[in-house]
Amino acid sequence: MKWLLRILFLFVVVIGLVIGALLLMPGDKLASILAEQVKGQTGRDLTLSGDVNLSFWPVLGLETGPVTFGNAPWAGSEPMLSAQSLAVGVDAAALLNGDLRIRRVIADNPVLRLELSDGRGNWELEAVAAPAPTGGSSSSGSAPSGSETGQVTLDRLELTNARLIYVENGVTTFDFSNVDLAASWPSPTSPMVMKAGMRVPGGKVNIDLKIQDLPAYASGAVTPLKLALTAPGGEVGFDGRVNLTGEMDGKLEVKTQETERMLAAFGQAGTGVPFGLGRVADVSANMTYTKGGRISLRNMVAQLDNNRLTGEADIEISDPPKITAKLEGGDIDLSRYNAASSEFAATGGGGGSGATPSQDSGWSTERIDASALALANGEIRLKVSSIVVPELTLGPSVLTLSLDRSRAVLRMNPATLFSGQLNGRVVANNRNGLSVGGKLNAKNIDIQQALSTLGGIDRFTGSGSGAFEFLGVGQTENQIMRSLGGKGNLNVGQGVISGLDLDRLMGRGKGSGGTTVFNILSASFTIDKGVLTNKDLLMSLDNFRADGTGQVDIGARRIDYLFTPVALRANSGEGLSVPVRIVGPWSNPSIKPDLTKVIEAAAEGKLKDLEDDAKQKVLDKVGGELGTTVTETEDIEDAVKNKLEEEAKKGLLKLLGGD
Question: What is the pLDDT of residues 554-564, one digit of tens each?
Answer without folding.
Answer: 999 999 998 88
